[in-house]
Write a structure and sequence with these properties.
By secondary structure, this protein is an alpha+beta fold. It is about 25% helix and about 25% strand. It has six helices and 14 strands. An eight-stranded mixed β-sheet has the order 9-1-2-11-14-13-12-10. The protein has a two-stranded antiparallel sheet with strand order 3-4. β13 and β14 (about 160-165) form a beta hairpin. It is extended. Homodimer. Interacts with LigD. GO terms for molecular function: double-stranded DNA binding. Keywords: DNA damage, DNA recombination, DNA repair, DNA-binding. Belongs to the prokaryotic Ku family.
């Protein structure tokens, strides 16, 4: 049984077929160290008062939520008014559309969850849906009402289970036009592209997340551990400063650099902590 509690229990529905499933968070909330501001002389955490400019501290019951519709002007909403428009958590997630595994731009993906059958009776239908998605190379799309909000979600095979990923809605995504407008429309030199493709092929390997480590988080945890062992004594860090970029001309012989990279004989398997992995496809 999973160590964590399900965030949702309900029916995953495909037309007239309903599958009892449970949803679990796929990422760890406490994977990275978090910090609080501390008053050094006393060692106690710092708290902040709610204050209004020109008024000073205010009572909690005087505070309302406000939506800024113009600079400095707000529409005030009570908690009761906000609660009234929240959606009830529905016990059914219906897959209303299916798309190809590469049809959703990665920019839309937000947070992953594991989907597992709730019991032995649901497992047969669960396997049918999982294998059908895998064989057809499709992703299921639906909307999930959870914690008062409605989430757009995508479901795909993942190992022996299913992975649900919440998606950003269209109005949450910034348009790229203003960011990419300054990039010229001319195509790159064909010969250079071919050399770059050869370099990419040479360094291509199956993605394995275990090859990549967060060196900053590891160093931070080591520092915390040493501080605890030192019992408040001063601890020096052995972290070397980042290398300075070599001074010189910005003019680079791109073709020469590409060919030299291709001739270095770099291993296809990436070193730990280098590069970035591409998005996974349905497995």
């Amino acid at each position: 049984m999973p160590a964590s509690r399900p965030v949702w229990k309900g029916q995953l529905r495909l037309s007239l077929v309903s599958i009892a499933v449970e949803l679990y968070a796929a990422t760890k909330a406490n994977a990275k160290p978090s910090f609080r501001q501390i008053h050094e002389p006393t060692g106690k955490p710092i708290h902040y008062e709610k204050v209004v400019a020109g008024v000073g501290p205010v009572d909690k019951d005087e505070i309302m939520k406000g939506f800024e519709y113009e600079k400095g002007d707000y529409v005030l909403l009570t908690d009761k008014e906000i609660d009234a428009v929240k959606l009830e958590t529905r016990k059914t997630l219906e897959l209303t559309q299916f798309v190809g595994v590469c049809d959703i731009d990665p920019i839309y993906y937000d947070k992953p969850y594991f989907v597992v059958p709730a019991d032995d009776l649901a497992e047969d239908a669960f396997r049918v849906l999982r294998d059908a998605l895998r064989e057809s190379q499709k992703i299921g799309i639906g909307q999930l009402a959870l914690r008062g909000k409605e989430y757009l979600v995508a479901i795909r095979p993942s190992g022996t289970g299913l992975l649900l990923e919440t998606l950003h809605y269209e109005d949450e995504i910034r348009k790229s036009d203003s960011y990419f407008a300054g990039i010229g429309k001319a195509k790159a030199d064909k010969d250079m592209v071919e050399v770059a493709e050869a370099l990419i092929d040479k360094k291509t390997a199956p993605f394995d997340a275990d090859n990549y480590k967060d060196h900053y988080q590891a160093a931070l945890r080591e520092l915390i551990s040493r501080k605890l062992k030192s019992k408040g004594k001063k601890v020096t860090t052995d972290v070397e400063p980042p290398e300075k970029r070599a001074e010189g001309s910005n003019v680079v012989d791109l073709m020469s650099a590409l060919k030299k990279s291709l001739e270095t004989g770099a291993s296809a398997k990436p070193k730990s902590g280098t590069g970035s992995g591409s998005r996974r496809k349905a497995s």
